[in-house]
# Entry
Amino acid sequence: MMLTTNPFDDDKLHEECAIFGIRGTKDAAAHTVLGLHAQQHRGQEATGIVSTDGDEFKVHRAMGHVGDVFGKPQVMETLEGIAAIGHNRYSTTGESGLRNVQPIYADFEFGGLALAHNGNLTNALQLRKELVHRGSIFQSTTDTEVIVHLLATSRGPVTERLITALRLVEGAYSLVLLTKRKLIGVRDPRGVRPLVLGKLGDAYIFASESVALDIIGAEKVRDVEPGEMITIDENGINSQFPFNRQEKRFCIFEYVYFARPDSVLENKSVYEARKRIGEELARENPVEADVVVPIPDSGVPSAVGYAQESGIPFEYGIIRNHYVGRTFIEPTDEIRHLGVKLKHNANRHYIEGKRVILVDDSIVRGTTSRKIVEMVREAGATEVHMRITSPPTAHSCYYGVDTPERQSLLAAQHNIKEMCKLIGADSLGFVSIDGLYRAMGEANRDKEHPQYCDACFTGDYPIENVDANSGDSAKLTLLREQVR
Ligand code: AMP
# Structure
């Protein structure tokens, strides 16, 4: 296990993840395994579950996929209990290792508590420095651990402490927390990352995506609202809005890429959204061609939309090997390059002698596009036209999607013509930001009050990246005042 000697030098504390929580069934951990398995696409590096029988806590965390870690009866036997929470951790280019695997568990004055987080806090380093100065000893390099220390230094019952702690943090968070008696789900005031509430018999469930409810046969009750904190205990369900109301800014990239197509987020089908983006893309970027080919998997529904709108036949001209993780999982550039070849193969018969439209969701560093264009040309395509179902990714995400620093983003360094040349395509077209919003059912993007967080495309960041700016923030001052 590699440890960073000085976590303050590590600016890579962000995570994109899946969370799940359930209370009110004797098979809580088994349900959690299934819920995490359905959300494996949100994080494949590590996974963990904490369960409780109302008396003791049981913890199992490990590197690896859900099926590998929890597919062993001897592990599941140790996780009995009527409530559990779980987490899938996404690989980032930052430090990985067991000490960063969630859920985090800690013992407090009020008893034990486990916590799992999806998102990224933008003032975690600033708060951490202050907490360390005051004597906190951190166990991990995750931003999430800051919440644990803020809970420890707050006063009152757990829900009050949580409100105090979360008023001090800035950023994107969907959280599930577990105590002996309570399961708590919270979403940040902007609602950047998803969180749904479900029900199965007497049990309540929280999950990042609705597919985690489908797999266990639970019904979706509703999305947890931005800024909402829901507590589930023996008295039933209680909802509070303890934070200042803010404009909702759900991450539009969840629809473009991150979520599973069979998920419904914020009452919108991800598949439907992707298909409609493909239609917009076809209207905005038409080209004469013989076949529309998705780069699987995320490009598939959009390619269906593109093909239907353009009248050009759809074919699976590229086949994906499902036993390789997402390209980004690979830790180095060299392996990332290899990853694309490991993952995709040209279906030559449908490519040879054809003018091909390739549909993918995004160009980040350009690695995937370049490799695939080359592969399709090698398979005999006469023309290759790349179509992308998002606007150019020109800005980093500070809210939990693992985009690289700006200088590594192809669109931050080059215009579309240059990008086209770099990836070796005959033409390159992106959906416009308004086209993307139209596909989401909006008339256009409201410039004053954008309906979504689209910072990776527009640079319009709804939440300050406190840790990137020097100087003390208002929340740091608040923390200092609280200890006086
Ligand atoms: P790149 O190869 O660097 O241009 O990255 C683009 C490819 O990575 C696309 O095929 C996407 O499907 C995928 N992708 C985009 N964003 C992410 C992300 N945040 N995490 C993992 N994969 C991504």
